[in-house]
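B., you asked whether I could sanity-check this one before it goes into the benchmark set. Here's the sequence:
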Amino acid sequence: MVQQLDAAAVAERMAQTIRDRRVSVYPGEDGMATLSAVLPAPVARAVRSALEQYADAAVTEGDQRTRAQRMAHCLVDLVLRPGEHGLAPVQAKLTVVAAVRTLLGGDEPGEVDGDLVPPAMVRQLAATLGLMPDVQGTGDTASDPEKGLARAGQARELRNSAEVAARAGLAELLGVRRLAGTALDHRPHVALVDELRGRLVALTDASGLRRGEGLGPPAESPGYPPREALDRFVRSRDRRCRFPGCRARPPSADLDHTVPWSAGPTSAANLTCLCRYHHRLSHQAPGWRLRGLPDGGLEWTTPTGQVRTTRPPGYGTDEVRSSGRPAGRARSHPRPDRHGGDR
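And here's what the prediction gave me:
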């Protein structure tokens, strides 16, 4: 809400915090220490993504290390033994979500891997990746009346040219047909959002729009696992674990059938994002009940009878909408099985 209502102040603070980026070491116990880096959120997400991929590639037969331990080892090797670590190069992957008006210079914040970021940072990231023309700052300094009308006219021309360049860049981005030579992992998706509630209505791309495909949730998948388009839609819609108060993000979440398969279909209305912990809780913890509502809400009932309803957060906000009394956490941690159960 602050980013939307006072975008100029947020941009000023963002510039200051970027100047404050740093790396620090904090001593710990038993000979350990914490290495901390203060970075722009997209950069930090990219670094983590790269380390996760290096860690996954570093698994060896009989390796007992956790993924987190391998990430720490890879970080040390990459920094202290550049060129000698033997690890194949990887590419960091980021999911960037931004409104059309944001890319064209508006004040609505965007998202990078689920983190809200100021609109100026979204545009700069798009320019850095070569997805949009770099028009940052063009026409941002309002003309000083003391500098005369000529300066004011020049500022207007710069703003107009920046808007034209941004619109052309956006049209080219949405119409891209080949990914070779771009920073894109796939063609950009176009989301149709109910602006009053911020709810995702449809997810398509420019080619789908040209083909005249209907706008709405993807069709049901015939089997147990959802097809790619349905999987992407549900994760994009929910954007968080749907347990009250949980903020786990969809990439690490399970897609759970609210009405268990095969009594319930593999459809957008019957699938929801749950982190592994709360997925287990919904199926295994005694006394907990989960029910899907016709409007897309999830009704959670605790063993003590408390009821809490959650709905996906609206786009343009970080708020996870919910109602009812807090459900709290389970009394005991449900034990996951080896394969993760119902996806």
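One thing to flag: The chain has three domains: 2-25+32-80, 98-141+150-174, 189-337. Otherwise nothing jumped out at me.
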